[in-house]
Amino acid sequence: MSAGTRAAIVAIGSEMLGPLRRDTNSSWLTERLEEMGIEVVRKSVVGDEPEEIARELSCSAAAAGWIFTTGGLGPTADDVTVAAIAHWMGVPVRRDERFVAAMRERWEVRRGLRMPSVNEKQADFPEGARVLENARGTAPGLWLERRGVQIVVLPGVPSEMREIFEQKVLPELRRGGASAVTKRRVLRIAGMAESRVEELVAPFYAKWKDDPVTILASPGEVELHLCARGDPATAEARVAEMEDDFRSVLGARIHGTGGEALAESLGRALKEKGRTLALAESCTGGLVSSLLTDVPGSSAYFLGTVVPYADRSKETLLGVHEETLKRHGAVSEETAREMAHGARERFGSDLAASVTGIAGPDGGTPEKPVGTVFFAVVDREGREKTSKRFFGGDRAMVRRTSAMFSLEMIRRFLIEAA
Same structural domain for residues 24 and 148? Predict the structure, then answer.
C-alpha cells in the first residue's frame, strides 16, 4: 500500500496519559478512514510537550502519507499543538486578526458575553495552513502539507472533531475515489461466555480464513469483529455474508451491531413492544438502572428502581417475606423472585427484574461463594424466569457482569414472551 493511503493518528493531551481519560477519537477516525480506503498504520498518545509532539510527528511522517492530530487547540497555556507543529514544520505562527474579530462576534451573538482575551490564541495559525471552520466551538481545524505528507489538525472535543472531519475533510477524501476500502461489522453478544461463543462460531473460521475475525471479551459481553477489504461493493457484500453466517449460529444472542450498547438494544425492544420496566437491585447497587438511564429517552419505558441493600429494606420496600429471608437467605432464587414481584407492584410496570448476590470481597460461604448472583424477571401476565450465575473477578467485575447479564436476561425474556 502506497504512502498516500496510509495514515497515522496522534492524540495530543497529557490527561490521556493518566487513568481517567480515554482516547476515543482515534477509534472513530480509524473507522472513517478505512471506509475511504486509507489504512491506519500508527496510533499514539502524547502529552502536551512540544518536543514529544515533534518527535511523534517525525515518526508518523516516516510511516504514513496522512497525519491526523486531535487535541491541544484550546486557549490555555498547556495547549501547544499549533506551536509544536509550526516549529516541526519550520514555519512561523501568525495571528489572523479577521479570525479574532469573527470569534468575538460569535461570543457576543451566541453567548451574550465578551470573549476573554486568552481565546485570541486560537487565531494563531502556522504560515500556509488552511483553516477548517469549527461550527461547534472556537478552535478551528487546520490542514497543512510538509514534504508530501498531509497533516490534518483537529480539536480534541469529540463532537467538534467529528463535525470538522465530516464537513471539511471527508468530502475531499471521497473525491480521491479509493479503489479498495475496508468494511467492518461488530456483532455484540451478551449473557454468553467467550469460550461458548468461540465454540459456536469456530466452524466458520475456515470459510473466512482470508478475512480477519476477532473475538473480544469484556465484563458481561462478547464482541465479534468482522472485516473485509476490496472495492466498496465487494467489501460490503463480503462482510454482510460473514454476518449472515455468524447470525445463523448465534441468532437472537446478538443484541446489536456497531456501537449500540446492550441498554440501547433493550430500550429499543421495550419501546417497540410498548412495555415498561422497573428494577430491584441489591448487589449491583443501581448499576443496571444507571446503564439504562444513560440512554436518552429511557423515561419512555423505565419507571424506576429500588436498591434494597439491607434485608430489612427488602421486606419494607418490596414486600419480601421475612420467612423467605430466614429460610433461603437474601441471596437466593426465592428472594430474587419476590423482589421482582415487589418492584413490579410498587411501580405498576409491565415487567420487573431483580438482582441479588455476593459481590465480595467478603460475605461468601461454601454453599454460596463470592460471585454467586441470582436474577429474576416477571411480568404483568404472570410469566417469570429466574437464573443463578457465578461470576469470577473482583467486586467491580462481579457487579458489572451482573448488570450486563440482567439487561440481557430482560431482553431475552421480552423476545421469548412475544
Answer: yes
Task: Dump pLDDT digits (tens) for 327-371.
Answer: 999 999 999 999 999 999 999 999 999 999 999 999 999 999 999
> Which of these three, 219, 237, 257, is where a domain ends?
257
Residue found under cell 461550527? 135
- Please give the tally of structural domains in the chain: 3
Domain carrying residue 38: 3-175
Buried residues in 248-287 as b, exposed as e (16+ CB within 10 A): eebeebbbbbeeebbbbbbbbbbeeeebbbbbbbbbbbeb
Q: Where among 257, 280, 315 does a domain terminate?
A: 257
CATH number at residue 199: 3.30.70.2860
Q: How many CB atoms lie within 10 A of CB 179?
A: 10
Express as a percent the part of the chain with pLDDT over 90: 80
Are residues 367 and 274 both part of a single domain? yes
Sequential DSSP letters for 163-230: HHIIIIIHHHHHHT--S-EEEEEEEEEESS-HHHHHHHHGGGTTTTTTS-EEEEEETTEEEEEEEEEE
Q: Are residues 190 and 339 in the same domain?
A: no
Q: How would residue 179 be classed by pLDDT, with cut points 50, 70 and 90?
A: low
> For the packed helices 333-347 and 311-318, what is the interaxial angle rounded to 10 degrees?
40
| Model pTM score | 0.72
pLDDT tens digit string along 270-293?
A: 999 999 999 999 999 999 999 999
